[in-house]
Structures are given as structure tokens and as C-alpha cells.
Amino acid sequence: MSKNKKTLKIAIAGLGTVGAGVVKILENNKDMITSRTGRVIEIVAVSASNRSRDRGIDISGYDWADNALDFASRDDVEIVVELIGGSDGVAASLAKQSLAAGKSFVTANKALIAHHGFALAQTAQDHNAALKFEAAVAGGIPIIKSIGEGLAANNLTRLCGILNGTTNYMLTQMEATGKDYSEILEETKLLGYLEADPSLDLDGIDAGHKLAILSSVAFGVKTDFANVYMEGIRRIKLVDIEYAKELGYRIKLLGIASISDAGLEQRVHPCLVPNAAPIAHVDDGFNAVVVEGDFVGRTFFEGRGAGEGPTASAVVADIIDIARGHNGPAFFIPCHDMKDVPAASISNRYGPYYIRLHVEEKPGVIADITAALRDKNVSLHIMLQKGSEQDGSVYVVMVTHEVREKDVMTALDQINALSSVIDKALAIRIENL
Ligand SMILES: NC(=O)c1ccc[n+]([C@@H]2O[C@H](COP(=O)([O-])OP(=O)(O)OC[C@H]3O[C@@H](n4cnc5c(N)ncnc54)[C@H](OP(=O)(O)O)[C@@H]3O)[C@@H](O)[C@H]2O)c1
């Protein structure tokens, strides 16, 4: 079958979870991929840190490079596939050097694209090379291609999604088992689901990287990770999940981006989402993205957000795209048309809030709290207070009407200063998706 088909030679840097998965797909599905692309895709060289590590794949037929940067200067290599990770270091050098040498570059590295996406897209464009990163966002969901091609007829102004499978797993497990955050965190660590630097997951940074990439693809803006507002799940307690349920919501860590006259809004934080919203039922390690277009309306994508198979599937889809000659701009519009849009501050968000307070149970406390809210025109829709804790403290939960973020936060600063407050107030934004 592969006779007379022109060979496309690739080099793979990084043979960990994703890299080994890519090798498996390219070897196992070789004939099918050849017939779909009209080209024989041949791995000619690989690189990793440790040559002798058992990876469950046979790499004896490929050249080995101790230094992955050698791939950028190999004349026979058309595509360099980077599956090492990290926003800088070898990954960034390999990207710059490969693209500058006119080689196409495929990566699953969200940190790299979030930090350097526009500059790399410019280098790719200047050297007629392709830059592709489908696997960097939402693992197995083909969301980059769906937005950049499938929804290209639409003016897109808003998107949101569950972009980090690990924190979604943790929130799902808290609800399912009734265990608190710290216990679930320990279990998640043991399962090996957390990044080597857990704050990438727990503080919303990984989701922030992906959101910055999606914003660029959807709105045609220069990648602006520096202005993504990020807040993770560390302060979510079991009591919040239980109160949210009672109020008809579930708690999800969402990335939300929109573009308007107010600027580019990009924020990652826990949200209360109504039980009736499809995204409320995306559980465990799954990811989901909601994209709204002016003609298509609301679209909803769901799939596995990470893992060897889904992520490698997206990497190989990019390689196939290049083999088919689909070498358009990285963000689907030429770099000179990508806009520099000022960031919209989260302090101007307007919407309802869930507020949880842990206070001493004594006369006058509720009056002090409501006075602080009244002073900032924060009006309450619901207030819940259940029986006291064993230590005599009490949780008070409130749901506000639609208010300005800066007013809620100023009122909470005032409340936090009260001597009766045991734990800093927690505000969770309610998103009526
Ligand atoms: N895992 C996922 O589910 C997933 C999902 C989406 C995106 N991603 C992204 O995919 C990329 C790879 O992730 P992964 O999970 O596969 O990571 P991983 O399992 O830690 O693999 C990293 C690989 O890079 C190799 N490496 C490290 N330093 C190197 C260097 N200087 N030169 C060449 N190779 C080097 C390692 O070599 P050794 O094996 O010899 O140590 C290892 O094979 C990251 O950007 C990650 O964010 C991963």
C-alpha cells in the first residue's frame, strides 16, 4: 500500500506518557494513516532524558538524539514533535529553532503556547512552517480545530469550559464520597493525577494556560496569559459543595473568556453552575467546552481531558493535518491580523455570588454582616444558616442578587475584619450558563 507514497519524516522529542502514545498510534495505525493522508509518516529520530528507560515501545529502529535541539538542523526531518513540557527551556528553544529552520512544529505543551504562542506563530509564518497544538487544550476534544475551522463562519464572543481534569475529578470525588478537600487531595496525589508542580492544577494555572490559547483561537487576539485571572479550588470545603447542592447548583472550576467593548476578559475560578446546565454534569477527569457563536448559537463539546490515548490522538491528528497539506496560520488568521486587546478587569464582573462565612454564634453577628453588605449595596436573595458546629461556631451561606465584583469584595474585606469571623469569607461566582 505504501509504495509510491512520499514519505514524511518526523522526529519526536519526549517519550513519556504522550510521546510513547504517539509512537504507538503511528505504528499501530500506520496503514490507515497512510491511506488517509497519501503519505507514509515515518519516525526517523527520537529523544528523551534517559535512553535505556523501558517505555513499552520499541525505539531501536529510530535514531537517538541526546540533544533534542539536533532535530532542528536535520535536513531530512519535516515535522518536529515536542512532548517534553515546560514554558521555556528545551521546549521553547526547540520550537524557535525548528520553526526558524522552516520545519513544522507539533506540540501538546500548553504552557509553551500560552506564554509564547503569538511569537511562535509569527516565526512559523515568517518561515512558511506549520505550528499546531490541538493536544494542548482539552486532551481528546478537537476543540482548537472545531473553533478555528468548524465555527469559522461565526463571530465568537464568549466561551467557557472545564479545562482541568484533575480538579474536576477532585470536586466530583468530594461530592461523591463526602470527604473533605484535604483527604481527596491526598488520594489524588496517590493516584498520580497531579502535575509534578501541583499548583498548576490546584491554583488554576493549567486551566489558565488553556484558556489563553482558546481565547486567541476564538477571538483572534494575541495570546495574553499574563492577564488571565486565576483562582483555584484550595478554599472549597465539603460544606460548600453541600450548600451548593441544596441551592440547585454544582461547583465547577471554569475558565471563562469573552470579548466586548470592555476588553478581553479571561478568568479561571470555581463557579456555581445550575444543575440544569449540561456542564454541571461533566464529572471526573472529563473536560468540556461551551462556545457561543452569533449564527450557530451555543455548542457543547465533551471528552477526556488528558491521558495517553486522548492526548496522543490529538497530537497525531495534527501530524495528519500537516501530511494533508493543511498548513494555515497557527491561530487560523494571519499574525498581522491578530489583535492586541486590553484586559477587562474582573473587578467589573456583574453577577450573583455565593458567600460562605464561618463565624462565632453570638448576638449581633448577622446584623454586622448584613450592615457591611448593605453599605456596598449588595442585596441578598437567600440566606441559610444551619445548626451550630460542635465548637459553637456556625456556617452562614448567602446568595446575592446581581452585583458588581468590587462591591462584594469590599464588603467582604469589611466582614473579614470583624472579630467574630473565624475563617476568611469565601465568595464563589454564580454563572447562570
Ligand atoms: N499527560 C497528559 O495527559 C497530557 C495532556 C495534555 C498535554 N500534555 C502535555 O504533553 C507534554 C508531555 O507530557 P507527558 O505527560 O508525556 O510528560 P512526561 O510523561 O513527564 O514525559 C516527558 C518526556 O520528556 C522527556 N524529556 C525531559 N527532558 C528532556 C530533554 N531535555 N530532552 C528530551 N526529552 C526530555 C522525558 O524523558 P524520560 O522519559 O527519559 O524521563 C519524558 O520522556 C507536556 O507539555 C504536557 O503538558 C500532557
Number of helices: 13
- Beta strands, count: 18
Average of per-residue pLDDT values: 96
Name the CATH homologous superfamily of the largest domain.
Answer: Dihydrodipicolinate Reductase, domain 2
Class of the largest domain, according to the CATH hierarchy?
Alpha Beta
Question: Any overview of this molecule?
Answer:
The chain has three domains: 6-136, Rossmann fold; 143-304 and 330-346, 2-Layer Sandwich (Dihydrodipicolinate Reductase, domain 2); 348-430, Alpha-Beta Plaits. The chain is 34% helix and 26% strand. The chain has helices at 17-28, 30-37, 89-100, 110-126, 143-150, 165-177, 181-190, 199-202, 205-219, 238-246, 308-323, 365-375, 405-416; strands at 6-13, 39-47, 63-64, 79-82, 104-107, 131-132, 156-162, 229-230, 249-260, 263-274, 286-293, 297-304, 350-351, 353-360, 380-385, 393-400, 403-404, 421-430. Strands 7, 8, 9, 10, 11, 12, 14, 15, 16 and 18 form a ten-stranded mixed sheet that branches. It binds NADP nicotinamide-adenine-dinucleotide phosphate. The site of NADP nicotinamide-adenine-dinucleotide phosphate (NAP) has 25 residues, from helix 1. Residues 13-19, 47-50, 53, 68, 83-85, 90, 108-110, 135, 139, 306-307, 311 line the site of NADP nicotinamide-adenine-dinucleotide phosphate (NAP).
Features:
alpha/beta, single chain, binds NADP nicotinamide-adenine-dinucleotide phosphate, Rossmann fold, ten-stranded mixed beta sheet, elongated, 3 domains, Alpha-Beta Plaits, Dihydrodipicolinate Reductase, domain 2, 433 residues
